[in-house]
Amino acid sequence: MGTDVPETLTSDREATAAAILELTEEAEPLLSKEDASEETRGQQQRLCAAIAEVCKDEEARAKLTASPALMQSVHETLSAACAQEALPVVVQCLRAIGNMCFDNDAARQALRSTNGVAALGTALQVIVRHAARASENQQDQQQPQPQVQLMAGPGSILNAAGESEELQKELVEAGVVDNLMWLLSNAPTEQEKDMALNALMRFTPVEKAMQQLATTTHLSTLISRLEACSDVEDADSLGELLKQITNNDKNLPAFAEDPALIHRLMALAQVGAGAADEVPITRARVVAAGVVAVLLSDDACLAVLWGNDKHRDELLTALRSWMEPALATSAAKQRAEHAGEAVAGEAAQSENQGSQALQPRPHAGEGEEVSPLAALSDPAMRQVVDKAVAGLIGIGNICRSDDNARVLGETPGLLPALVALSTHNLGFVQHAALGALNNVVKLKDNRNKAVDAGAVDALLRVMNDPQAPLQYLACSSLRILSSADSRDLHTRVATDTDVLHRIIHLTGSEVMAARGEAMRLLVTVVKTGRAAEIIAPIVTGGAVDVFVRMLQEEHPLFKCEGMIGLAVASAAGDECEQLLLANDGAPLTAAMDQVQQTEMVELGLNFLAALTQLIQNRGAAVTALPVTQRAATFARERLRLVPEPAVQAQVRQFLSLIDAGDDNK
Region labeled Disordered — which residues (predicted)? Predict the structure, then answer.
């Protein structure tokens, strides 16, 4: 591409660079001439071509880009050539700018200070306009037309944009996105389309660029290329573009404006696996599935695939099928674990006889457990897990209404699948499964079904994972499941010291999300424990210290729930009462400190409830404590001023017990 440059100029690029710099120092540098004669334009075209060739050498490029005057001259020449529609000069200027900007921040910044960004945007538009005209003429005359050299346009944009988000934003303002999309759709060669796609990828961090792509026309172009995709790198680039577009909720309705876009993505995701050279390739189908999953978070897009029974059934079947291969590997993992336990047991029994047990492996066709590193490095396995994640995200996004959650809960095999994948050996699969499970069980009707599917065991296992996001999701789901009819969770926490200690350990996590959910889980299990034989072992096993620590948290929610935990503990029997009254009521004193510091009415009421319960059970041993007298003063001076009947009733009950104790002295 480009004007031929004599070999004598490219054999020693550094010497040529020095000669070019000398030209810019003359009284009337060639690039600064404003006359539009054919001779001048030809000279400028050849000089820009020489600059483009010379800048392929790193040292020569550094020498040329050290001259602001030269770069400004090239930018001004480009602007003038655009105004005069001098296409050959435009092309060579673009090549020169693109090569100067390659891995060169100085050249990129010079664009911003010399109006070069606007010139680039205009130049790309000029190239596209000429290419469109040539295409129309070829169609009208039905004979070949001279082809415009298109690579220089997106190539210069690609190099100029670099990693500078500010420069990327300015190029977007200069209008490059629509013209790059025209090239992606209409350029005559795949090489030119690939260059346009690569240039578009520079603008994924720019929100406005993604908004400009969120039109039915541009989305259709991207989907069409995905449908014809034969290259993994191409599919990943398209996937990243679509991902960044859909990351902004405001862009999602554009897909629903033309429902055919969503149906095309769905059809693409559902194409069955075939020969290795099949178009679209597997990666393109995985990308389509991921986009569909995100679109389900938008009501209008969801309505396209959920609006009638037929579409709903097809969607649920598809989401389930995307998870199936990953489920097979998860099942293989569980079989291996169970087999390992069985082998260990047999080995222990036969140790005295010197026998050695062999661990059975899954039968062929049943799927084998794959290590996380192997799954991430093997393209085929990566497709499996990525598509499973798409299915899980889709399920989680559908659960935005009770009706939808009810449908999912009634879908055969769905909850067991979510439970199984929540213990997958890849963390990002677990995360997606836990997120979906968490959303599904928010509907009360689904909680017992989840427990029956083994959710409690699975979630307790996930709690032991070292990753804080997984700990958070496991604790969150367990907290929700604590309101199920089953008492399995409560019994496990009360009787299995490992489980209780793990929850208590997580309440000290440095990660706020994990710490907070573990605290809330502990309080919720105590609140819903119902029976002293469940509550007491938890309280005496370390929960009181956790409740006191919750009072130290900044968020009012944790303070209130910690105080509720203390209130429940006060009614859980002698051992719990003794813990609260130990060291002159140290836990109660810490709680009262928070009541006075925050002056939160709810906090004060729950504290009075705890003290009331303790006074009723322990009498003078409680009323004589200094903390009780502090509480009485607070009730008289502050809580009595709150007019709500419930507050007044609690204050009266508490103060009547205090007064009765004083009378009995």
Answer: 330-371
SS3 content of the chain, % helix, strand, coil (to 5): 75, 0, 25
Residues 555, 561, 563, 565, CA torsion sign = negative
Question: Which residue matches tokens 């529609």?
Answer: 85
What pLDDT score was predicted for residue 230? Answer: 87
Distance CA 564, CA 523 (A): 8
Tokens of 119: 């010139």
Q: Whose structure tokens read 């989680």? A: 396
CATH architecture of 7-213: Alpha Horseshoe (1.25)
- 577 CB-contact burial (10 Å; exposed 0-12 / middle 13-18 / buried 19+): buried
Mean pLDDT of 100-112: 90
Query: Among the listed ranges 138-152, 170-184, 485-499, which one has the minimum average pLDDT value?
Result: 138-152
Asked if 296 and 326 touch (Cβ cutoff 8 Å), the reply is no
Task: Tell me if residue 495 falls in helix, strand or coil.
Answer: helix
Length of the chain: 665
- Contact yes or no for 565/504 (Cβ under 8 A): no
Distances (CA, A) of 310 to 401, 478, 533: 19, 34, 51
Element spanning 26, H or E: none
Single pTM value for the model: 0.85
pLDDT digits (tens, 9 = 90+) for 85-95: 888 888 998 99
Best CA proximity match to 631, nearest among 618, 646, 645, 612: 612
- Cα–Cα distances in Å, from 31 out to 7, 51, 112, 413, 605? 22, 12, 19, 72, 82
Q: For residue 88, how many other CB atoms are within 10 A of its CB?
A: 18
Residue 34, pLDDT score: 59
Q: Which two tokens stand for residue 599?
A: 């002056």
> What does the DSSP assignment read for 519-561?
HHHHHHHHHT--SHHHHHHHIIIIIHHHHHHHHHSSSHHHHHH
| Cα gap 287→226, rounded to integer Å | 8
pLDDT digits (tens, 9 = 90+) for 187-236: 999 999 999 999 999 999 999 999 999 999 999 999 999 999 988 999 99
* Nearest Cα residue to 294 out of 392, 423, 405: 392
Helix (H) or strand (E) holding 248: none
* CB atoms closer than 10 angstroms to residue 382: 17
Instruction: Of 346-350, 429-433, 449-453, 578-582, give the lowest mean pLDDT range.
Output: 346-350
Which candidate, 74, 109, 66, places its Cα nearest to that of 92?
Answer: 74
Backbone torsions φ then ψ of 285, nearest 5 degrees: -70, -35
The two structure tokens encoding residue 434: 């836990």
167 with 117: CB under 8 angstroms? Answer: yes
Q: For tokens 């049943």, what's the residue? A: 366
- DSSP class of residue 1? -
pLDDT at 481 over 90: yes
Closest to 51 measured CA to CA, from 119, 99, 102: 99
Question: Is the peptide bond between 280 and the residue preceding it cis, with omega within 30 degrees of 0?
Answer: yes
**pLDDT digit string (tens) for 254-307?**
999 999 999 999 999 987 644 445 567 789 999 999 999 999 999 999 999 998
Each as own residue / partner, the long-range contacts of residues 379-383 (CB below 8 Å, 24 or more positions apart, any chain) are 379/232, 379/283, 380/282, 383/282, 383/283, 383/286
**Extents of the domains making up the chain:** 7-213, 227-301, 308-344+369-462
